[in-house]
Give the backbone structure.
Amino acid sequence: MLNPSIHRLDLGGFRVTSILAGRFSLDGGAMYGVVPRPLWSRATPPDDRHRIPMTCNCLLVEADSGERVLFDAGIGQRFDERGRDLFAVDGNTSLTGSLRLAGTAPEQITHVLFSHLHFDHCAGALVSDSGRLRPTFPDAIHLVQDGEIEDGMRGHSIMKSSYVSEDIECLRASTRFEGIDGNQEILPGLSVEITGGHTAHHQAIWLHGGDQSLVYPADLLPTRQHLRPYWIMAYDMFPHDTLTTKGLFTRRILDDQCIIAWDHDPGSPFSRLSETNEGVVAIDVETA
Ligand SMILES: [Zn+2]
């Protein structure tokens, strides 16, 4: 029987499982940018260090054609004591542990598709083995936008610490690591689309199966709280692009009745969207 913490959907030709790859916390003010604390703290109560709980929800997509694609690899477990304390990293949740609960071994992953290369999205693709780094998914092709690789290698970010260039270099050297040039179909029914906003080459991932579509917007819409137009992370390189693009994405998701998969929301990982007098809200999707 499937573990009750595993959320899974069937989407004509694809089996989609949300994989809890980590629990951590980030500063609430940074997560909501210009939004005043009295507003965001009502929506997401912070801890006594002003942090709010976050998850790294990766997606495992198993195609009927045999491929097993992982969207993002989460925050990993390679923290020193200070980092573990700073981000309140939960040492009991791991990407490979959650994948195993979902019935998948790391060796079975054929593709790792990164939305972008910030450490909380790619650090889990490497593990430390007696102090030496090795790939978590040795047999997988690792894919991300070309421009994101360049920006990651030179640490082009609001915060220097968002990219760990040594990790990116290690992934390039030890895995099949390939750049994507623009919007592309990766497999039939699975495509990437550049969103910009969070980083210049940040990409969302779309799945079209049968008459259903699902989008993983990653850090364009990291949590359901970010459906509000002006709730934009202070980490975003181009916040006005985030504002515009997330508005367009929200409209498409509503019009096409797509399922949205949240990358950092600690609540239910899959939602549909609904327009109400209070704005756009997320409605949980029933999962197996
Ligand atoms: Zn990010």
About this structure: Residues 116, 118, 198, 219 surround zinc ion (CB under 6 Å). The CA atoms of residues 62 and 68 lie 5 Å apart. The mean pLDDT is 95. The helical segments are 28-32, 37-43, 81-86, 95-101, 119-122, 146-153, 165-174, 239-255.
